[in-house]
What we know:
The structure is a homodimer. Chain A is α+β, with helices and mostly antiparallel strands. Chain A has seven helices and ten strands. Chain A has helices spanning 3-17, 62-74, 94-105, 158-172, 189-200, 206-216, 241-250; strands spanning 18-32, 35-43, 49-50, 53-57, 80-87, 119-126, 140-147, 187-188, 219-225, 235-239. The interface between A and B is medium-sized, with 23 and 23 residues. Chain A binds a DNA duplex through helix 6.
Amino acid sequence: MDYKEExxxxxxxxxxxxxxxxSVDCVIFGFHKNELKILLLKANYAGKWALPxxxxxxxxxxxxxxKRILEQRTGxxxxxxxxxxxxxxxxxxxxxxxxxxxxxxxxxxxxxWMFDRFITVGYSALVDFTKVQPVADIFSDAxxxxxxxxxxEMILDHNLILDTALNSLQLQLNYQPVGYNxxxxxxxxxxxxxxxxxxxxxxLDRRNFQRKIISTGILKKLNETKKGVxxxxxxxxxxxxxxxQKALKAGLGF
Amino acid sequence: MDYKEExxxxxxxxxxxxxxxxSVDCVIFGFHKNELKILLLKANYAGKWALPxxxxxxxxxxxxxxKRILEQRTGxxxxxxxxxxxxxxxxxxxxxxxxxxxxxxxxxxxxxWMFDRFITVGYSALVDFTKVQPVADIFSDAxxxxxxxxxxEMILDHNLILDTALNSLQLQLNYQPVGYNxxxxxxxxxxxxxxxxxxxxxxLDRRNFQRKIISTGILKKLNETKKGVxxxxxxxxxxxxxxxQKALKAGLGF
DNA sequence: ATTCATTGCGTTACATTGACACAATGTAGT
DNA sequence: ACTACATTGTGTCAATGTAACGCAATGAAT
Lengths: 254, 254
């Protein structure tokens, strides 16, 4: 089935495969070169960008649907994923957008479940930037990382969804460790600091931060310093996964 | 339309009115006689209890749907309401339960949207116990308060939904004021203390608690003590609504 | 009038936090 | 080879917050 046929099939027969009225949108956070980034798709009809999203198979857990979508976009299997909010504005204008899409592809006059009202569940994912291979889907012709504060205007309410995700991530930082999913296995204290600062959108005192994070016990200091940096070389750390998991469940009281 | 006709109509034609596959379930918390309670309906088919729930009109915001359901069950208009989780187990056996229901009512052999798989969104509500007039719906023959730790086995995954709601309420207590929606206008410090203790499931030092809650500035002390109590009479307090709202938005850092 | 559970207010020891000082490190420039 | 310097690692100290407990005041019940 070629590209156009595939899309037509999705519009006309997708409702046999997927639940109606419900979609999933993913805010995929990554961290690279001291910048917080999110992964976006370029909708090949609107010229606008969009969050990676998809639909729920008739016999699929929603978490699985989100996982499937993430895997298709990033190639990653083990992903930290969680739902953070449901968006149910009756005026989320999926109908107009999807009609326009179909028209741009060159199909018209058909009826479709895609013109129905959609409620969408927002999922946020934290991934290791360096391990991601961005892959576009059939509705998109690009899949790229955007610096969090340079995200363009997106389709529908996707900017709102992003803001809500960021907000909930900031809240989480107060009572849960977060770095494990966003950083490579080995990292330095300044990198971890910068991650926290970027998510929170404000600077922290590096000395107090170090004391606090060390006191949680979730870090293991390695006997190895970063090579090839100007100035004093920082030590590498990695997460003590056992204690990290514990802190995830029990909370940190940050 | 009589009772049975109404139910039949709901099963056969409800999908013209409501979104398919999606429902809303509400965990309604109240506080009375130093006990945390929730409002349950007795499903008139299963002999089991259930959370008050309902469906989303085709042109309705999900928050509005939850509000509508709450209003119908409690008579209250101004309610503190928030979504806390989406439950999407594909094996939530709504089909079996709803088929049984229809059979018990005396209807059989029909097809119905109610036999489809349902994803449900959990909402939690905090209400003033004393102002609630519990009202059953057409699927139920009773609507009653249950002490939170004496909740019976419920239909489907409703016990899980309740546990999740309680958990999220406990988390909230750490960074948001909560009492306003659960207590009558005037209340004493021991009552507020007991509310916190009940939600958290552990005792707090009353003297430290008082200092902490006073220091947030969300309380106004009245020049009036409780009458007719043995021992020393406690003062009444009420919430400083302006500061309370502020704290809701800004967080308390409790 | 006395008893006594409970309230209101206070104290003290200890832990946590925020702000800042200073020496150690190691590359880059001379 | 030596020096400059940005950055890291460790430490200090005062202010603030928290946990644990003491004690007198209250007022219905006896």
